[in-house]
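Dear support,

I submitted the protein below through the web form. The confirmation email said the job was done, but the results page showed an empty box. After a refresh the structure appeared. I'm attaching both so you can tell me whether what I see now is the final result or a partial one.
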Amino acid sequence: MSTGEFFAQLHQYGKSEPEKPIYFADFAATIAYVRSNRPADGDILRVHVPARATDAERQEVIDAGAVPI
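What the results page shows now:
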């Protein structure tokens, strides 16, 4: 996968615009970020997961508290 195919973006409760996306080189860097940056109650951390990501990677994102898109 190429750089930037994975990225995370925080959508804070009550704000109309999400924070700027944070791009990652690979899945390992993405999931490390997600695990260490759990969203506050009401906030949503969305993670762009490319089409060729595995089902296991998608499930890992969900298990870590983020929403794959």
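Response: this is the final, complete result; the empty box was a page-load delay. Strands lie at 6-11, 22-24, 44-48, 67-68.
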